[in-house]
Amino acid sequence: MHRRRLLAAAGLLALPAILPGAAAQGFDHPLRIIVPNAPGGTSDILARLLATPLGQAAGQPVVVENRAGAGGNIGADLVAKSPPDGHTLLLLDVSVLATNPFLFARLPYDVEKDLATVSMLIYAPYILAASKTLPVQDAAGLVAYARANPGKLNFANSGTGTLSHLVAVALAAAWGGEAVHVPYRGGAPGLLAVASGEADLTMAGATQSMPYVVQGQMRGIAVSGPHRLAALPDLPTYAELGWPQAQSGTWQGVLVQGQTPPAQVARLEAMQAPAVRTRIAELGAEPRTEGAAAFRAQLRADTAALGKIIRDHDIRLDQ
Questions:
Q1: Which residues form the signal peptide (predicted)?
Q2: Which of 27, 78, 119, 198 could potentially form a cystine with 193 if both were Cys, beta carbons 3.0 to 4.6 Å apart?
């Protein structure tokens, strides 16, 4: 139901470009949006939301391709090695590009040289949620339980080295307890595991996780980001609780091959005309359209911060 509601809200980031005629001049064959993970996650939902209005703006069909595997490297490398013409786009959570240089001994592409930033799309804070079978009601109860039961809590996440894993590691360390890392193939399976009682805790972007909390399938504990969510006003923020990684969340953005001409990047960037901000807020996300330079700055900042967590906790892909 949530997915249908999202797809019906084509105005979420609705591109239609203010200048469809001018934009279309730079595109002469179909476009592809590469999503480097499985269907059902935030990136996949966004890509399918954007495909139709992007195609209208560019004057070409747009196809969404899921190229999961190797921690997102398969999809990222495909775009890095695509023709530099702006017709092959990479849409993903920026944390993938920020963490992979620390998790893989050798990447087949260089994030700085082989991928050009176009624009952020949205920022969605993380909702930390608990299974209703877990005997905790709020953040204080969760911290007390973690300290009293070291090693008993488990954290469902979207895979080793993903942001949902790294933030969970940082939180558990701050709580003074321990949590078992339980990787799943994406955020959607992790949410289902907590909703069914198979796992204790999870974190996922609000665009994915908020319906589960609102509908009572799991218990909301706290939310990252600068403020509380309008739909869940009783959930405190990480900052209010003094928890680390207070501004963590899913930063979704679009990149193209690194040698794409600036004029073509600018055409794609011009299509990012977010509308219906209230609708975005209802879904727990915020539009982020500051442009290519701001996107690159965010990527570099995340790379430094997340790299530190990986080094400090000796996180490896074989864990």
A1: 1-23
A2: 198
Q: Which residues contact 131 (CB under 8 A, 6 or more apart)?
A: 194, 195, 197, 199, 200, 201, 218, 219
pLDDT tens string 65-120: 999 888 889 999 999 999 999 999 999 988 889 999 999 988 999 999 999 999 88
Q: Cα-flanking dihedrals φ and ψ of residue 153, to 5°?
A: -70, 145
Q: Which two tokens stand for residue 223?
A: 């939310």
Which phi and psi angles does 122 have, rounded to 5°?
A: -145, 160
Give pLDDT, residue 282. 62
CATH fold, domain 125-241, is D-Maltodextrin-Binding Protein; domain 2 (3.40.190)
**253: which 2 tokens?**
């953005």
Average pLDDT value for the chain: 85
- Measured from the Cβ of residue 76, the count of other Cβ atoms closer than 10 Å reads 26
What is the spatial distance between Cα 82 and Cα 85, in angstroms, rounded to a whole number? 8
CA 221/CA 237 separation, integer angstroms: 9
